[in-house]
Design brief:
This protein is α/β, with parallel strands linked by helices. It is 40% helix and 18% strand. The protein has a 7-stranded mixed β-sheet with strand order 3-2-1-4-5-12-13, with helices on both faces. A 4-stranded parallel β-sheet has the order 7-8-6-11, with helices on both faces. The N and C termini lie far apart (61 Å). The structure holds 6-O-phosphono-beta-D-fructofuranose.
Length: 339
């Protein structure tokens, strides 16, 4: 009987449980295979912290945020001896194939393990939607809906006070959430890391708009935009930049330049918590079932991906090749509504 190991690593994302459910159900019901859940990402693979997963374990988790397997940012090549530190768990549990659900960093580690001899299938995961090789990642749609709802609410309070409101959203290096959320919420300006901004221009646009009689402006700011002045980046426990708060630096400058009272809302982890949208549930389910099929076929070094409306497999190396930015055409659509 084939045994599939599954782990979730890196930041969580709505839809992880739907992927796990998809893998377990497809593997056990369709392929008569076994699934071993690895706890807390790579950490569990290094420590041998694993549990057999069957249909009962995944009952009722489709709509739940977070991940029943837990997650961590530990990495066998950084915090262990690479392949050697996971080989024992793979062997002891007869794991034939590993399904790794994670973002670009996790997928890079998966690729290294594959090159070192493990059989690996990747499932791209991030609310940021910036993984190369796939048109969409699950979790993104949910985050965009949360941003859209927030903008709708912030617009009415801004309008009551003739204010400018800056809404800071996630997006470490790319502005997908900002662009989609901004378009959906009807924002007046959207600042993303891919497009340099000029605060004088932003202010001029806001001034013109309020002079025309409009009583509010909503500026969506991706957390990864360049800060207006030199800033020492805080690090998390694993040495990654801790983003969040650039809008607090921008707000007083915009207030000075426009003369309009300016307020800030940082949405932060609200965008990552809670139940996945229907779109994300379906996408995650399709990706999970496809990953199980690929594992059973004996494939390795591939990643499931959404291309158009299809779920396909692409080389894992493609998913690790770059961080995918917002395309010009999409941002141009957003710009049409600036001001
Ligand atoms: O990469 C996904 C993401 O949600 C980013 O948008 C954000 O900067 C980061 O994770 C936050 O990570 P943490 O949960 O470690 O603060």
């Amino acid at each position: 009987m084939s045994v599939i190991g599954v782990l979730t690593a890196g930041g969580d994302c709505p839809g992880l449980n739907a992927v796990i459910r998809g893998i377990v159900t497809r593997a056990t019901q369709t392929h008569d295979a076994e699934v071993v859940g690895i706890m807390n990402g790579w950490e569990g693979l290094m420590d041998g912290d694993v549990n057999l997963l069957d249909e009962r374990d995944v009952r009722g988790i489709l709509g739940k945020g977070g991940t029943i397997l837990g997650t961590s940012r530990k990495d066998p090549y950084v915090h262990g001896e690479g392949f050697a530190s996971v080989a024992k768990t793979l062997e002891r549990n007869d794991i034939d194939s590993l399904v790794v659900i994670g973002g670009d960093g996790t997928l890079r580690t998966a690729l290294r393990l594959e090159q070192d001899g493990a059989k690996v299938i990747g499932v791209p995961k991030t609310i940021d939607n910036d993984i190369a090789g796939t048109d969409f990642t699950f979790g993104f749609d949910t985050a965009v809906q949360i941003v859209t709802d927030a903008i709708d609410r912030l617009t009415t309070t801004a309008e009551a006070h003739n204010r400018v409101i800056l809404v800071e959203v996630m997006g470490r290096t790319k502005g997908w959430i900002a662009t989609y959320g901004g378009i959906a919420g009807g924002a007046q300006v959207i600042l993303i890391p891919e497009v340099p901004y000029d605060l004088e221009e932003v202010a001029a646009l806001i001034r013109r708009r309020h002079r025309r009689g409009e009583k509010y402006s909503v500026v969506v700011v991706a957390e990864g935009v360049a800060p207006p002045h030199e800033t020492e980046m805080q690090k998390d426990a694993f040495g990654f930049d801790r983003l969040g708060g650039v809008a607090y630096q921008l707000a007083p400058l915009i207030e000075d330049l426009t003369g309009y009272e300016t307020r800030v809302t940082v949405l932060g982890h609200l965008q990552r918590g809670g139940t996945p949208s229907a779109f994300d549930r379906v996408l995650a389910t399709r990706m999970g079932t496809k990953a199980a099929d690929l594992a059973i076929e004996g494939q390795s070094g591939v990643m499931v991906a959404m291309r158009g409306a299809e779920i396909v497999s692409v080389p894992l190396a493609l998913g690790c090749s770059e961080i995918r930015g917002v395309d010009d055409d999409l941002y141009n659509t957003a710009e049409t509504f600036f001001g």
